[in-house]
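Quick review question:
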């Protein structure tokens, strides 16, 4: 393979790659603003310039200055075999300092009030490649703040005119809402009058902007970024399986960001995924278990509601479980395992799969198998395929309509209904069919199903649990729990395991004494006094559930074996000396 040397590090490259692409592949840092892997290359920021030498065939392949010894943009210059590149030579370093000084001339230096502070390339490069002091004494050019669209604000005087945002709207979304207007130091990013930046992927320009010029209205002044922890996760709202970061602090989610995965979502997520998680902290969340007493639903301790649920299910002649396509494969397995333990002919059904419009491919006109293609899925459930796979392996998955029919005809006399949809919508025919049977509802939001339930155990959204989703391309991806469960909610897998523990414990119980099962609230919590503490179910572990289903069912080995684990984050080593206090 052809090789070049960048700052003393030997880097391999493929034909057609540029120097910066070879550097990025080998993990060698070259500062850059305007270059982005997904976009065209204008080479306009000039910070990536390097000094290069190439073997001269006319002088026994001795190294000679390449291209006349001029500094070359590494983002635009193709790599050639034997090339020697230095971004740390005095000439290259002088250029970096000059570029940084130029970019900061009219910059307001308002880092203390800028949302980007802490994750700003201008700030980082200023520290690493800039001068320590400013020589500029004249008045700075003031630029306005602009509302560009439903999600994006522009602080124009922080812009460094890298044009990444403009190229994104031209080359990826094909909507071309953004443009550069003006000349020289009056240049500004803008939109056409009456044409806001409003497309399905619009907020990706916020991530593309290397400085604090394009800001997220939803995150504006909400949190300093250094307080945020990030957990790698998967889109829990659509069938795309987009890789995301969930950024949170003290149990509260503040924003979602795309996590690059070239096989799945490239560098992007839709605005629908980015902002669709608000139900997680909604006031309509079900946060407390409930059970029916004299016809009315009352709030209850988890233990009592779980006891009621277990007793109601045990009394039934035929159990039906409606497993939502919003749940993980592990949740589906735990619910089906519980139902089959009580009634080995239990009816297993998959919940309604919401669909909106048709799949859309970006850039416009690209085929779905194009390596640049980003697909917005019409299917608005993250795991319909995974849930179907699990239920089919454990005794067959009937359709939603068949399930409702069996409820209505009285074939099923006890139902476990799961929801976990991001809205309070609930199918009317399901609510009507739940008129008579015993109904354990495990859901996240206060929907019309609540009034039809006999017993309610609040479920956890995908951010509050670990598990596996299978996306529209049948890619199985695991994710970790990002935040603790909201209120007294638990994952459906945990609830199913708790109920199973109660039922199995009761089966072994030979005393007539009335006892409560004690189920651990959260790891580390001290149990409150109970009449009798029974062995608890233990914390539901998604990895163990995957392993178990792979061992028990041949058809589910793929979930245990082919699942892709989230890649960890590359953490930069701090250059500060740590002192022990
Ligand atoms: S707004 Fe940001 S992304 Fe757009 S040109 Fe300016 S610096 Fe670049
Ligand atoms: S990254 Fe090369 S000129 Fe901007």
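Suggested answer, residue by residue:
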């Amino acid at each position: 393979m052809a090789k070049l040397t960048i700052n003393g590090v030997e880097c391999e490259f493929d034909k057609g790659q540029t120097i910066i692409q070879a550097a990025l592949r080998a993990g060698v840092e070259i500062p850059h603003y305007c270059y982005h892997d997904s976009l065209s290359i204008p080479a306009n920021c000039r910070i990536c310039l390097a000094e290069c030498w190439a073997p001269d065939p006319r002088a026994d392949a001795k190294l000679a200055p390449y291209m006349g010894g001029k500094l070359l943009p590494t983002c635009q210059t193709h790599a050639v075999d034997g090339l020697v590149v230095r971004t740390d030579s005095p000439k290259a370093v002088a250029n970096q300092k000059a570029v940084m000084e130029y970019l900061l001339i009219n910059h307001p230096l308002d880092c203390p009030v800028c949302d980007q502070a802490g994750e700003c390339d201008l700030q980082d490069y200023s520290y690493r490649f800039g001068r320590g002091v400013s020589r500029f004494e004249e008045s700075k050019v003031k630029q306005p703040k602009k509302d560009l669209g439903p999600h994006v604000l522009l602080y124009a005087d922080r812009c460094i005119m890298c044009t990444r945002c403009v190229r994104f709207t031209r080359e990826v979304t094909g909507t071309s809402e953004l443009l550069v207007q003006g000349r020289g130091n009056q240049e500004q990013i803008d939109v056409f009058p009456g044409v806001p930046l409003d497309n399905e992927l619009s907020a990706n320009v916020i991530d593309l902007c290397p400085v604090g010029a394009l800001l997220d209205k939803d995150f504006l002044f909400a949190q300093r970024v250094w307080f945020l922890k990030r957990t790698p996760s998967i889109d829990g709202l659509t069938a795309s399986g987009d890789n995301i970061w969930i950024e949170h602090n003290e149990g509260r989610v503040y924003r979602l960001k795309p996590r690059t995965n070239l096989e799945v979502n490239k560098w992007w997520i839709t605005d629908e995924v980015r902002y669709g998680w608000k139900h997680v902290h909604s006031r309509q969340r079900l946060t407390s278990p409930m059970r029916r007493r004299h016809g009315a639903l009352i709030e209850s301790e988890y233990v009592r509601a779980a006891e009621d649920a277990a007793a109601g299910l045990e009394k039934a002649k035929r159990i039906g479980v409606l497993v939502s396509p919003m749940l993980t494969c592990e949740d589906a397995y735990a619910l089906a395992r519980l139902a089959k333990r009580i009634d080995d002919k239990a009816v297993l059904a998959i919940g309604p799969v919401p669909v909106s419009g048709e799949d859309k491919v970006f850039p416009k006109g690209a085929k779905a198998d194009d390596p640049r293609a980003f697909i917005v899925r019409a299917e608005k459930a993250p795991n319909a395929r995974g849930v179907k796979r699990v239920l089919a392996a454990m005794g067959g998955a009937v359709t939603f309509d068949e399930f409702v029919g069996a409820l209505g005809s009285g074939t099923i006399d006890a139902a476990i209904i799961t929801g976990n949809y991001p809205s309070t919508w609930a199918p009317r025919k399901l609510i009507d069919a739940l008129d008579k049977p015993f109904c354990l509802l495990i859901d996240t939001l206060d929907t019309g199903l609540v009034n039809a339930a006999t017993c309610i155990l609040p479920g956890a959204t995908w951010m509050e649990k670990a598990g596996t989703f299978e996306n529209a391309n049948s890619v199985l991806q695991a994710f970790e729990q990002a935040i603790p469960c909201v209120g007294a909610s638990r994952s459906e897998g945990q609830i199913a395991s708790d109920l199973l523990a109660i039922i199995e414990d009761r089966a072994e119980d030979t005393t007539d004494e009335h006892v409560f099962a004690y189920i651990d609230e959260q790891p580390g919590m001290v149990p409150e006094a109970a009449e009798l503490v029974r062995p608890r179910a233990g914390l539901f572990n998604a990895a163990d559930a995957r392993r178990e289903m792979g061992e028990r069912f041949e058809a589910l080995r793929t979930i245990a074996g082919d699942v892709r684990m989230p890649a960890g984050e590359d953490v930069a080593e701090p250059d500060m000396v740590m002192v022990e206090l």
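Why it works: Residues 32-35, 43-48, 73, 75 surround FE2/S2 (inorganic) cluster (ligand 2) (CB under 6 Å). The chain is about 25% helix and 20% strand.
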